[in-house]
Amino acid sequence: MKLHTYFRSSASYRVRIALNLKGLTPDLAFVHLRRNEQRDPGYAALNPERLVPALEVDGQVLTQSLAIVEYLDETHPAPPLLPIGPLDRARVRGLAQLVACDIHPIDNLRVLNHLKSMGHAQGEVDDWYRHWIAVGLTALEARLAGDPRTGRFCHGDRPGLADLVLVPQMYNARRFGCPLDAYPTLLRIDAACCALPAFAAAAPENQPDAES
Amino acid sequence: MKLHTYFRSSASYRVRIALNLKGLTPDLAFVHLRRNEQRDPGYAALNPERLVPALEVDGQVLTQSLAIVEYLDETHPAPPLLPIGPLDRARVRGLAQLVACDIHPIDNLRVLNHLKSMGHAQGEVDDWYRHWIAVGLTALEARLAGDPRTGRFCHGDRPGLADLVLVPQMYNARRFGCPLDAYPTLLRIDAACCALPAFAAAAPENQPDAES
Fold this sequence. Notes:
The structure is a homodimer. Chain A contains 9 helices and 4 strands. Chain A is α+β, with helices and mostly antiparallel strands. The longest helix of chain A has 24 residues, at about 120-145.
């Protein structure tokens, strides 16, 4: 098993947390996004999406972080990353997708670079970033705070799929200086997650390819 | 079961296809996105994300189209929307997420409206739309054309999760006048899908809330 990763990629960060929770230690290959190594012909042949993460396993190349995490959960069921009941599974997947579909892609590095190429100054790009963070985290806070199934973590008292998507988004929001006081439930869950070794070891600054 | 939907919403379109494939006929509630009905207090209380679709079922409100589709697949297993093996399931989920995470959110109505609010003219907004379509569909074409598991549909000869995400994206790409000749595999699969009653009945123009 080989994980193609970049220390600062939120989507890679999700998969690193899942691997740690499962106790899996794949080989690592580093793809430097700021140096555009994802566009190298060798990597593009491996993953035509030219994004990270990608997981090589059993002769296949898996892409898309949530698909990879569900694969890891199906093939290494303990500890489970999804609850058992279909309604609860839909809740957890929905929370994860709220971040993975409706916040992260709009604030991804390639989108921010595209805005710059359209003539926007860094300040306008930062405003864009913070706007979509605020829209998305406000919705996520409302969903978590208003549901008795929220526990120490996003769903009950065990970390799972929604948590491993939340934590990288909170990390990135802090990098961009987004105010987070309006999201007490997210802050509480993020802190509970980051106290766990599986989450801490997956953080960008703790990766072999980390740069300051 | 009640589906909150808008005829032109790609994410609603996905869920409508899944419901049709499963032979399910929920009650329908229409949320007119261009009139901003998703921001009405009543709907925002139901779905703090202020997006469609949302599926009310067993006293819960499910959001995020892919989470809803997986719920439908878990609770109504026939016909299956995912293959059996974990590697194949990861492939199909990855194809679906390539569109649902890396194309659609960046080209969503609210993002296009935000670009306009930043001063961009319609032509620049259209360029934005077509840029992300081209990036995403090029990757999807490469993944599908280069894999022997691609069949009449995205995965084998039965329509599933990846197909019901592909078709609404192709529909929208046509609306925006995106050239599609470079994607022969996508065109072939899209045509095979649209020939099926479950897909045809889910098309925007065939919805009760359709407008010209």
